[in-house]
Amino acid sequence: MAKNTEVSEQQAKYNVGDEVEFTIEKQKFTGFIDKSYTNSFLITFESKDPEIIDKYHNKVVINNQHLKMIKAAPKVETEDDEEEEK
Questions:
Q1: Domain ranges (residues) in the chain
Q2: Residue range 41-86, pLDDT digits in tens
């Protein structure tokens, strides 16, 4: 069966490297998107709570609907982008 590689409208708002806000265990955290999945993202974050660190090891997968953008990552132009502009 073929994988669905289309990006949803909700998913398209976020990119790898973006800083986002999310809630786990009734606590708000900020972190950076490391990897994109079909409906969620792998996010690296820091916490001072030993229970959170022990449970999540500073990484968590969060559904894209539960994220709030803090700061977008800078966009890097690739060679493909430069060729299209010519």
A1: 12-85
A2: 999 999 999 999 999 999 999 999 999 999 988 877 666 555 555 5
Q: DSSP labels for the chain?
A: -----PPPHHHHT--TT-EEEEEETTEEEEEEEEEE-SSEEEEEE--S-HHHHHHHTTEEEEEGGG-EEEEPPPPPPPHHHHHHH-
Q: What is the pTM of this model?
A: 0.74
CATH number of 12-85: 2.30.30.430
Cα gap 82→86, rounded to integer Å = 7
Cα end-to-end distance, the chain, whole Å: 39
Q: What is the largest CA-CA distance in the chain?
A: 54
Tokens of 82: 């430069």
Q: What would the pLDDT profile of 23-40 be if each residue is shown by its tens digit? A: 999 999 999 999 999 889
